[in-house]
Amino acid sequence: MPTIPVITIDGPTASGKGTVASRVASHLGFGLLDSGALYRLTAFSALEANVELTNESALADLAGKLDIHFEGERILLSGREVSNDIRAEAVGVAASKIATLAKVRSALVTLQHDFRRMPGLVADGRDMGTVIFPDAPLKVFLTASVEARAERRYKQLIGKGFSANMANLLQDLRERDERDTQRVIAPLKPAEGAKLLDTSHMSIDQAVEQVLGWYHPAP
Ligand code: DC
C-alpha cells in the first residue's frame, strides 16, 4: 500500500505556519491538520467546565472525549461553532500550559493520526515532524522574529474583533515560546532533516512557494 504523504510545518506561535499550511494544502488538494486547534479546543473546554489547568487526568479525559468537526474553516465543538472563540489570546495561553502535560498530549495522538488520509496531509503544529509524523517526506520548520510575529498576531486579533495591545502581545509570545521550547515532552524544535524557513521578511505567497518548491511527490 502506498504511504500517504505528509508535509509537516512546525514553528512558534504566530509564525504564519497556519496560513502557509492551509495554502499549501489547498494547492496540493491535501487535507489539513491544525494541531494547535486541538490543544486550544481542550483548553477552551477546560476553561468552560472550570477544570483546573493543572488537573492532568481530568484534562486528558476532556481531550480524549472532544467531539470535534472541522468543516473547512469552521470548527465545531459538540455541534457549536467555536472557530473564533478558540483564537482568543487567553485560550492560546491556556493551550500552551496544558500542552506541557504528557497525558493530554497522548490523549490527542490517535486523533491526529486519523487525519492522515489520501491523497495527503499538511500538518501544522509544534511536534508534527518530531513526534506525530516522523516519517513525513517533507518537514518544514517555520520561524519569524518575535517582533514580526507580534505584529501579525496583533493584526489577526484586531481583524477578528478582539482587542489587542502590542506590549502585552510581545510579552505573551516570549513567555509562550519559552514554555513551548523548554517543556520536557515534545518541545518545539526542528525535526531531523527539517528545512528551515525564516519568514520575518517574507510574504505568505513567498513562503508558500518555497514549501511547494521543496515538495517532490513520490513517483
Ligand atoms: O499553534 P497554536 O498557537 O494554535 O497552538 C496553541 C498551543 O498549543 C501552543 O502554544 C502549544 C500547543 N501546541 C502543541 O503543544 N503542540 C502542537 N502540535 C500544536 C500546539
Question: If you had to describe this structure to a student in words, what would you say it looks like?
Answer:
- It contains 10 helices and 8 strands.
- It has one domain: 3-Layer(aba) Sandwich (Rossmann fold).
- Helix 1 crosses helix 10 and helix 2 packs across helix 4.
- The chain is globular.
- It is an alpha/beta fold.
- A 5-stranded parallel β-sheet has the order 2-6-1-7-8. Strands 3-4-5 form a 3-stranded antiparallel β-sheet, with no helix packed on it.
- Strand 3 and strand 4 form a beta hairpin.
- The site of 2'-deoxycytidine-5'-monophosphate (DC) has 14 residues, from helix 2, helix 4 and helix 9.
Helices, strands, pairings?
Layout: E1 6-10, H1 17-28, E2 31-34, H2 35-48, H3 56-64, E3 68-71, E4 74-77, E5 80-81, H4 89-98, H5 102-107, H6 109-113, E6 121-125, H7 128-132, E7 138-143, H8 146-159, H9 166-182, E8 195-198, H10 204-214
Parallel strand pairs: 1-6, 1-7, 2-6, 7-8
Antiparallel strand pairs: 3-4, 4-5
The protein binds 2'-deoxycytidine-5'-monophosphate (DC).
Q: State the total count of DSSP E strands.
A: 8
CATH architectural group: 3-Layer(aba) Sandwich
The percentage helix is 40-55%
CATH class: Alpha Beta
Mean pLDDT metric: 94
The distinct bound ligands, ions and cofactors come out as: 2'-deoxycytidine-5'-monophosphate
Overall shape: it is: globular
State the order of secondary-structure elements, H for helix, E for strand: EHEHHEEEHHHEHEHHEH
State Rg. 16 Å
CATH topology: Rossmann fold
Percent of residues in β-strands? 15-25%
Instruction: Identify the strand order in the major beta sheet.
Output: 2-6-1-7-8
Query: Could you give a short account of the major beta sheet?
Result: 5 strands, parallel
